[in-house]
Amino acid sequence: MCFLLFFCMEGGIKLKNNDYLKQYIVEQFDYISYKKLVEIFINLIETLQITIGDYETGISITPNYELNYSSYSGKLPNSKIESFIIRDYNNECKAKACIKKFTIAFNKLNDMEKKIFYNTFIDKSKDEFIISKFNLCSKELNKIRKSAVIKFSLYLGFDKIINQVF
Question: Is residue 150 within 8 Å of residue 128, measured between CB atoms?
């Protein structure tokens, strides 16, 4: 009882089983390949943000881990990462659509998945930091991260290109 009171007072997180993908669903996907693809895709997004133009606009994160998108101006370079992930994103309009898809896919994750995804792939925080920041154990962190990566990948249609890339 004392632990429960301490846990609630310290902002501990109660995980609901229905908030995340079930283990048997996650196991149907090659998590490592999807994780690599997500990392490559985020590198692409970061590159597009810088190279398309005005860095003051584009993707911004709110305190509630919502991503906001606003339009850009500028030119798109020929990038190996760009052609590696999505071959037909070769003009500015399609690059903007790619960035917008990223924000939409991210915003479809539940709140905890957003936080873990952001801290893992965008902030590139260490697991120990994430565990202490959100009062999780490593098993919970891995469950949430796997769920977020698979959902994010499916929202973006990575399941259709995963075999072509790896």
Answer: no
Name the 3-class secondary structure at 59. Answer: strand
For the entire predicted model, the pTM comes to 0.69
**What is the three-class DSSP state of 61?**
strand
Query: Could you report the per-residue pLDDT of 80-130, keeping only the tens digit for each?
Result: 554 555 444 445 677 778 888 999 999 999 999 999 999 999 999 999 999
> Where are the chain's structural domains?
29-165
The torsion angles phi and psi of 68, rounded to 5 degrees, stand at -115, 145
Q: What long-range pairs does 58-67 form, CB within 8 A, spacing at least 24?
A: 58/99, 59/99, 59/102, 59/103, 61/118, 61/122, 64/111, 65/111, 65/114, 65/115, 65/118, 66/107, 66/114, 67/102, 67/103, 67/106, 67/107
In 3D space, the residue among 159, 62, 79 whose CA is nearest the CA of residue 114 turns out to be 62
The predicted model gives 151-165 an average pLDDT of 88
Helix (H) or strand (E) holding 69: strand 67-69
